[in-house]
Write a structure and sequence with these properties.
- Helix content is 32%, strand content 21%.
- The chain has 407 residues and is α+β, with helices and mostly antiparallel strands.
- The strands form 3 sheets. Strands 1, 4, 5, 6, 7, 8, 9, 10, 11 and 12 form a 10-stranded antiparallel sheet that branches.
- Helix 1 crosses helix 6, helix 6 packs antiparallel against helix 8 and helix 10 runs antiparallel to helix 11.
- The N and C termini lie far apart (49 Å).
Length: 407
């Protein structure tokens, strides 16, 4: 019996050492799933009704508190359609997973409580003419689960072990940039990597530790979007104020993008004027005649929004967070501005920080970490955060340090 006990201890110790020896990359902590190629793969993913540790990961009665994710304004438009609440619930699938050891910020100079989280991004999959498989629509919800620190540390060790086991014979997989997770991309959603990861995730999330959901809903004829957030308070989910919005619980944006020729967008309500936001870049005509040096200075607000050292989700309004990357890319191109060495640009990373955007930075694409139909969209903010989280986890050797590091 004594030998058996010693063997168990040694085995557990070896497991921990092997797990901790595996470094994590951005794609390990921000996991973009590949699009399912078959109905079997679609069903192998995570849906709202999937059972977690104590019930559905998104209970139907909680989902019913959200506004409709898609509403048609122009019946002739192919870009927007009515998606009834019951239909939307069944249509939703997880497209990406975020692992965060210290929300809302890893940076110690933010006055925040360090909270370990797993977050899920879901998009409704709908039928599109000419496409064989269902396609992610331009709407999303973001689910937040608080994980006790000890459980989170154990979960990270499991991720390392899953990666270690799958890494043998797969050394050629590309981990350089944040992208579709290479193991899951190679094996598909029915493969061992995702199915093992899915099992571990479902052990630690459920209705009891589900405390927040944010949404981005499609409005108009596909050129208007609505954002909002609901938090669990006293056991029920309630709408809460969006940062820098003078108490407003809903934020809307819409407009036209004609590429390099012009764009004109409006926000309702507008964020507070003295806060970093995208306000000065919403209309191309407003900035086209301004001196280049002035535009370059104003661009620093967008760089700060993208930079997790300067801002976090509690200090930036929804629309500015989702459109800062697109507007910065377009403005840099039109004014021939290079912000590579700007002091407000996020640089503190051992990982490459090029963000994959298959949309070319279109202002019609507000996705941050998911899909616009078949196109992969990863914002610069998501890329920067993911690099920061991977570095933090690797540096703290299994997350044994409770306090977030100062940068």
């Amino acid at each position: 019996m004594k030998r058996l006990a010693i063997a168990i201890v040694i085995g557990l110790f070896a497991f921990t050492l092997n797990a901790l020896a595996i470094s994590l990359e951005p794609s390990d902590v921000s996991i973009l799933l590949p699009l399912p190629k078959t109905k079997v793969e679609l069903d192998a993913g995570l849906s709202p009704g999937t059972t977690g540790k104590d019930g559905a990961i998104l209970p139907k009665d909680v989902f019913a508190l959200l506004p409709s994710l898609m509403i048609r304004k122009n019946p002739g438009s192919p870009n927007a359609l009515v998606l009834a609440s019951a239909t939307a619930y069944e249509a939703l699938r997880v497209v990406s997973i975020r692992v965060d050891p210290c929300f809302p910020s890893l940076i110690a100079n933010f006055p925040s409580v360090c909270q370990s989280q797993i977050r899920l991004v879901l998009q409704p999959f709908v039928s599109v003419t000419g496409e064989e498989m269902l396609t992610p629509a331009d709407a999303a919800i973001h689910l937040f689960y608080e994980i006790p620190r000890s459980e989170f540390i154990s979960f990270i060790q499991k991720i390392r072990e899953i990666k270690r086991l799958q890494a043998f014979g797969n050394s050629n997989l590309n981990y350089v940039l944040l992208d579709v997770n290479p193991f899951i991309g190679s094996q598909g959603l029915s493969g061992p990597y995702f199915q093992t990861l899915k099992t571990e995730i479902l052990k630690v999330i459920g209705p009891q530790n589900f405390f927040r959901m944010t949404f981005m809903a499609l409005r108009g004829d596909g050129r208007e979007w609505e954002f909002g957030q609901l938090d669990k308070m006293a056991g029920t989910f309630q709408a809460v104020a969006i940062p820098n919005m003078k108490g407003s619980t809903v934020q809307q944006v819409g407009g036209e993008d004609q590429g390099d020729a012009s764009h004109a967008f409006s926000m309702e309500p507008e964020p507070e004027a003295d806060k970093d936001s995208i306000l000065k870049f919403l209309n191309l005509q407003d900035i086209a005649g301004r001196p280049k040096v002035e535009v370059e200075k104003d661009l620093e607000a967008l760089l700060r929004i993208e930079n997790p050292i300067h801002h976090n989700p509690t200090t930036t309004d929804c629309v500015s967070c989702h459109l800062a990357n697109n507007l910065r890319l377009k403005t840099e191109k039109l004014f021939a501005i290079d912000t590579t060495n700007n002091p407000f640009r996020y640089q503190a990373s051992l990982f490459p920080l090029a963000a994959r955007r298959d949309d070319g930075g279109s202002l019609k694409s507000l996705r941050a970490f998911g899909y616009l139909q078949q196109k992969v969209i990863i914002s610069q903010r998501t890329t920067n955060e993911s690099a920061s989280v991977a570095e933090y986890i690797n540096a703290t050797e299994g997350l044994m340090d409770v306090d977030a590091p100062s940068r």
